Amino acid sequence: MAKKSKIARNIQRQQMVAQQAERRAELKAIISNPDTPFEEKLVARDTLNAMKVNGSPVRLRNRDRLNGRPRGHIGFAGLSRVTFRELAHKGELPGITKSSW
C-alpha cells in the first residue's frame, strides 16, 4: 500500500490538471501557431511558464485505484498487476479468464 500522502498528492495534482487544462491548451495553441506575432508568443510562453508545475499532466502518476501502488499499472483496468492477478483469481473481474492452451 502506498503512503496516504503520495496518493493524496496525486489526487490534488489530478484536480489541478483538470482546472488548468483548457488554459494550458489555449496558450500552447498560441505558441505553436505560426501566424501569431512573436511578441504575443513570448507573452504566452511566459504565462505558461508562470503557471504552477503541478498543473502539467506530465506530473501525474498512474496509480492502482485500490491500494495506490505506482508501478505495474494495467491501464484498462486501473489496477496494478498484483491486484489485477488477485482479483482475477477470485473471479471478481468480469470477463477475465485465465488463459490455457
UniProtKB/TrEMBL annotation:
Q: Which residues form the signal peptide?
A: none
Record's family? Belongs to the universal ribosomal protein uS14 family.
Alphabetized Gene3D superfamilies for the sequence:
1.10.287.1480
Any Pfam family: Ribosomal_S14
**Organism superkingdom:** Bacteria
Q: Does the keyword Ribonucleoprotein apply?
A: yes
Q: Which terms in the Gene Ontology molecular function aspect does this entry carry?
A: rRNA binding; structural constituent of ribosome
Q: What is this protein called?
A: Small ribosomal subunit protein uS14
Listed under subunit, the entry gives: Part of the 30S ribosomal subunit. Contacts proteins S3 and S10.
Q: What does this protein do?
A: Binds 16S rRNA, required for the assembly of 30S particles and may also be responsible for determining the conformation of the 16S rRNA at the A site.
Q: Which gene encodes it?
A: rpsN
Question: Entry's PANTHER family?
Answer: 30S RIBOSOMAL PROTEIN S14 (PTHR19836), SMALL RIBOSOMAL SUBUNIT PROTEIN US14A (PTHR19836:SF23)
Query: One biological-process term from Gene Ontology?
Result: translation
What are the UniProt keywords, alphabetically?
A: Ribonucleoprotein, Ribosomal protein, RNA-binding, rRNA-binding
Lineage of origin: Bacteria, Bacillati, Actinomycetota, Nitriliruptoria, Euzebyales
